[in-house]
């Protein structure tokens, strides 16, 4: 019995010692973690003060910040149109008897493009001419008699009225004969001829020719309604022509006040000279409209900005007390972005060195080489 009691006491003592050791071990491990964290923090602080880092030196690329002009553009696709782009219709109904020009031909204002059948009008005109000869002779005789106070005034006035009436009819018929000719209303180039000889045409319905004057052209673009308050006549624009690999600078010459109810857009126009005849109707143009301008701004590449917890950060290189460059994480406030660059409103200043390459996985205080 005594032996059993002794064994139980020894077992309890051993178990108690074992438990104390585990607790002590856990406490030591906890203290070890806390001390290790303190050592790591102190090492960073010492590195900041002395320039001695336990980490290897990281090679980076930096750019020295400066104040420069910053522009933001709205980019939309537009097209070229002639300043004078005219759809020519006939002035009377009739059948086309001849077409006097071909597509691509340059024409002058007033030049006859096509002829309609005017045979009946000419026959009527010839008939009136014969009648007019007789009536005019009768009038001249009556006038001569009336000047001599011979005959009645009624006879003289009747002859005069008949002559003038036929003259007006002749004038009207001659004008109708002229309307049988389809003429160009402008100087330009014949771009389309949708009619054919023998075809019946109707005023206001049939398009006979399209004549375009491309000595001056305009670029047309449709802009989303959201920008209607920002864009106006006089805004700077850049226009890029992919087919010509050419970019020109100009200004908006017209900004419509009308919003299209279907697609919620409004039209802007930019007029250009075409002295070298390089532009063509309906040529694609990428229109870049300047809707924001800053004379002096700090800008950095968008890709160097890192988002952490909803805030934006970048790394800069600055000298520590040992006159060595170390990495420093800086919170920034971003304005507008365009063409891969962001305007920095707060956080950076002129002459600071922003890290633009090798910024991945950097930490505060890390020694840098560039």
Tell me what the structure shows.
The protein is of the alpha+beta class and 370 residues long. It folds into four domains: 50 residues; 98 residues, conserved putative lor/sdh protein from methanococcus maripaludis s2 fold; 92 residues, Efflux pump adaptor protein, beta barrel domain (Elongation Factor Tu (Ef-tu), domain 3, Beta Barrel); 115 residues, Beta Barrel (OB fold (Dihydrolipoamide Acetyltransferase, E2P)), CATH 2.40.50.100. It is 28% helix and 39% strand. The chain has three helices and 21 strands. It has a 15-stranded antiparallel sheet that branches. It has a four-stranded antiparallel sheet with strand order 7-6-4-9. Strands 1-21 form a two-stranded parallel sheet. Helix 2 packs antiparallel against helix 3. The longest helix has 49 residues. It is rod-shaped and about 155 Å long. About 2% of the residues have low confidence.
What labels describe this entry?
370 residues; 21 strands; 4-stranded antiparallel sheet; 3 helices; alpha+beta; Elongation Factor Tu (Ef-tu), domain 3; 4 domains; conserved putative lor/sdh protein from methanococcus maripaludis s2 fold; 15-stranded antiparallel sheet
CATH architecture of the largest domain: Beta Barrel
Structural class: alpha+beta
Radius of gyration: 46 Å
User: Might you state the CATH topology name of the largest domain?
Assistant: OB fold (Dihydrolipoamide Acetyltransferase, E2P)
For this structure, what is the CATH class of the largest domain?
A: Mainly Beta
How many E strands?
Answer: 21
Mean pLDDT: 85
Query: How many distinct folded domains?
Result: 4
| Biggest sheet details | 15 strands, antiparallel
Q: Give the low-pLDDT segments.
A: 5-10
Strand content: 35-45%
- Number of separate helices: 3
Helix content: 25-40%
**CATH superfamily grouping of the largest domain:** RNA polymerase II/Efflux pump adaptor protein, barrel-sandwich hybrid domain
Shape: rod-shaped
**Strand-and-helix sequence, N→C?**
HEEEEEEHHEEEEEEEEEEEEEEE
Termini separation comes to 83 Å
